[in-house]
Amino acid sequence: MNTETLLVTGASGHLGKLVLDILLKGPKRNIIATTRNPEKLADYAKRGVTVRAADFNDASSLVEAFKGADRLLLISTDAIGSRIAQHKNAVEAAKKAGVKHIIYTSYPHPDKAPAAVAPEHFETEKMIQASGLGYTFLRNNLYADNLLPAIATAISMGAFAGTAGKGKTAYVTREDCAYAAAGALSASYTQNTVTDVTGPRAVSYEDIAGIVSELAGRSLPYIDMPETEFKQALMKSGLPEAWADLFVSFDVTAKQGYADHVTNAVLELSGHAPKDIKDFLRENRQSILK
User: Fold this and answer.
1) Considering only CA atoms, which of 139, 160, 158, 140 is closest in space to residue 148?
2) Would you state the pLDDT for residue 2?
3) What is the pLDDT of residue 169?
4) 3-state SS track over the chain
5) pLDDT value of position 116
6) Of 24, 27, 28, 26, which Cα lies nearest the Cα of 11?
7) b/e burial code for range 48-77 (CB count within 10 A of at least 16 → b)
8) Please, which residues bridge with residue 7 across strands?
9) I need a surface site. Which of 11, 74, 109, 191 has the fewest CB within 10 A?
10) pLDDT value at residue 80
């Protein structure tokens, strides 16, 4: 039996809670969960998880929070644009606290993908490599979950818009990313690894529009727009410019062929088969057709 202590950062977030749920279904383990708001994890504390306060903006809080952990899941923070400093604090604290191996949730092709989030992930990977700690980089593709509000909007407007051309993305569900992360965190291997975490197939926006048309019982065409026009449309819908730029960059990433790689990582790391995008959308049919 592996007796290493496992730590999940950002454990009160969507992905963090899913990872905790999966770990708690498995063999009894020593689990630490860190969060800025420990009260949000009160139910997990009752189930035997050690809950500790940790703020990535407060470096002094992290060493104590990470003490006793052997393997640490560093879930990238949601502070896009400020992640590097936060992740630097976490990596330095992990080393000081005696952590042996970091599992980091990264992004596919962070060194060259045009996605706005890629540079921060690439810098974080380099920091972890330079730390001398063992590492696993889980390069998660885009969440299928994030398609749901866009699809609901597209149905209400009668068309699905984007700027990805015929580019494809191997969307993966957040839950499947959690299975992969839990599997990597609870494993006993020590070698450094880099793994793309994807769904079982890559699809284009035209493919998605076709699936949704079938679910909705009416045609939902895909309209491909120039990048500047798509950005303007997003901003007109109420998105701030920074978020519009982010979504455009994801489409450009698909258009340039950086998001279509498919792997068996979810199954290999967890024994759990990843969900196909069509099955995922079918399961969420009510939320997108409301």
Assistant:
1) 160
2) 65
3) 98
4) CCCCEEEECCCCCHHHHHHHHHHHHCCCCEEEEEECCHHHHHHHHHCCCEEEECCCCCHHHHHHHHCCCCEEEECCCCCCCCHHHHHHHHHHHHHHHCCCEEEEEECCCCCCCCCCCHHHHHHHHHHHHHHCCEEEEEEECCEHHHHHHHHHHHHHHCCEEECCCCCCECCECHHHHHHHHHHHHHCCCCCCEEEEECCCCCECHHHHHHHHHHHHCCCCCEEECCHHHHHHHHHHCCCCHHHHHHHHHHHHHHHCCCCCCCCCHHHHHHCCCCCCHHHHHHHCHHHHHC
5) 94
6) 24
7) ebbbbebbbeebebbbebbbebebbbbbbb
8) 32, 72
9) 191
10) 83
The rounded average pLDDT for each run of 10 residues, N- to C-terminus, in the chain (290 residues) is 88 97 95 96 97 93 96 92 92 97 98 96 98 98 95 89 97 98 95 97 97 93 96 92 94 97 98 97 89
**AA letter at 271:** G
The residue written with tokens 């770990």 in the block is 23
